[in-house]
Amino acid sequence: MDSTLTSFTVYLVGYTHNSYPTLPTGIPGPISTLFTMERIGSDLIPTNRAGIADDDKSSNRARLAIEIAMKCSGLPMSIVTTAKALKNQSDSVWEETLKTLERKKLTGTSEYSTKLSYQLLENEELKRIFLLCACLGQDALVSDLVRLCIGLDFLEGVYTVRDARDQVQMLLMHLEESGLLSNSYSNDRFTMQNLIRNAALLIASENNVFMLAKRKLDEWPDDDKLKRYTAIFLHQCDVEFPKNLKCPKLRVFHFHNNHQHFKIPKDFFGGMKELRALVLLGIDLSEMSSSMKYLTKLRKLCLEECINLDENLCIDVGKFMKNLRILSFSGSDIKSLPTEFKDLSKLQILDLSNCSQLKSIHAGVISSLTNLEELYMRNTLVEWRVDNNREETENKNASLSELGHLNQITNVDLQIPSVSHLPENLFFDKLHSYKIVIGSSSTHLEPDFKIPEKYQLLRYLAILEKDVGIHSQKGIKILFERVENLLLEELNGVQDIFYALNLKGFPCLKTLSIVSTSSIRYLINPQERKHPENAFPKLETLQIYKLDNMEQLCSRVSLSSSSFCKLKVVKIKLCGSLKNVFLMSMVKLLVALQTIEVSECNSLKEIVFAEDPQDANASKSLKFQELRTLTLKSLPEFHGFCSISSTAQQKVLLDEQVEFSKLERLELCSIQIHQIWNGKNPPFGKLVHLEVNGCDNLKSLLTLSMAINMKTLQSLSVSECDNMMHILLNENSNDTQSEKKVCT
């Protein structure tokens, strides 16, 4: 390295997290910073990740950092992991680390840096969580980890599912800070870089854990090893099971199979009497029943996506597994819950989601699960008994009113056939989170209206029921006050969402989706009210689909400054009577709006309508300072974004009245405008993507002044614009200097 350098930054350029390069000495261009190396004397050391302060760079700590960094051979993965592990540690720990590196000649190995981080973790809980993360695989669900921790019962002082989830989240955060975990693509998952995971699995094997993934197991470990194992994880492996495995210390057995024809041998679990967590995914359970009597200490049982889960097996579960805290049959072919399940009084989580053949739950079973905290039952066909219905005297099934006896319940995921099945005293408003679907959709819902995943924690309500009076029921109205995500389909008899459903303005609502409801004409229609309405103060996403008679989102109504103040996304499709999207008086409230998508609305003339003639004459400025995406498709009557300056002969999309400072994406399809922009200062300085299709009235796409302004444009697509003669039109044919600017 150049001895004249005083500092440099280590970068990663175009590498995945599985293939790190050695440290470069200098790299130009826009690249992402990994960490900083600074020169101390004649050497360079990693300062910020190791927690070395500016006034400490000539100390013994800095000397140790130099030598440890040199032992890492310039490998970013090793340096970063080691630096994070040593942060906030004493000098003696630094000294011992250096001695170990020298003594064992572990120069530059990611295994050592990971092992060092593991050894320096604060407590045994963190160490166990770290090894479990490695064994569960890449991008595993946090909820699966939480369930496993409850099954193993090692979270000290934690007794509820909610507390366990909070504790696990905190432990995962510590592991991220230590550099042992990375950000996943979802907040509901965690991930570990392959180099770290490989090292973690080596540590796990030293701690009597056997893990194999996507490989063929030619031969099982010898008997001595099996007797020492505390956990076995087999992920999608080609394997043949012996008649039984003698694993007297085994506490976890996790087997994820590739096909459902694989059978577990009879009495296979006879030698695993200390088992606490059993997970079997995708197998044939026809010979499983005989093993149940051995698993009396089991706390977690997951038989998911399995076949031949018959009544005898279920009876044995209820008879022998009275210590169960977690029970999941998700995706399996279970047909009924027997009365023996009444004995599972310690059960905290019951997951019956996607059990499409489940029709029968015996009366009294649900209400007997007095410690139940979470219940998942989406996509089942349970024939719930309707309370106080003389016609159902022969129905021996449970009714939903049994859920009211569960005092510990905090989270439910339910699909309720119709409003008639709702219990008289709804308790859902007291839940920490819920996903409740009432009725069934009569149409194929678009992806935007997909029900959230079962492991997502939020308050979600979907009303897909045609019953005219469902929205007026007391229990439903209470739900509206705390719901965060609301889907309404075919809600007949409602013309106005705000006044008919919740006069408090849906104070917690973040996502509102309205589908195929012909009676709705407004979100908010004016009423005789003395004070400004506080409407949708937390709403972030508004999706409207196929509302044939909707005329306006908001008619002339006085709204408080907090109304719609967090709205980021507006998507509208197939609303044939809608003439505009926003009133001009409403624009000042839309301070967070980032996306507008409007398509297939045959009557739509403009996005913003000037309801007051004085505003129209004054050419009032319309500020959309956060707008990033504008998509307009198949709008045959469209005149312009705000059509004050447009005429039938000259339809202009945008002019100087509208201010966009952050617009990145503009998509126009089948709208009959004559100009995209009319004015001096085009607002396209941040535009990245421009797509124009089927706009037959456009004779030119861009003027020279517009093109000069588009310094960040990366993608330009023009198609099926039959009358377009110019992509780039120079307003001043003598301005050759500007043409040169565009070309460069």
Automatic annotation (TrEMBL):
Keywords: Nucleotide-binding, Plant defense
Start and end residues of each Disease resistance protein At4g27190-like leucine-rich repeats domain: 471-602, 624-722
UniProt key word rRNA processing: no
Coiled-coil portions: none
UniProt-listed GO biological process terms: defense response
Presence of keyword rRNA processing: no
Pfam families in alphabetical order: LRR_8, LRR_RPS2
InterPro entries: Apaf_helical, At4g27190-like_LRR, Leu-rich_rpt, LRR_dom_sf, Plant_NBS-LRR
GO terms for MF: nucleotide binding
Identification of the protein by name: Disease resistance protein At4g27190-like leucine-rich repeats domain-containing protein
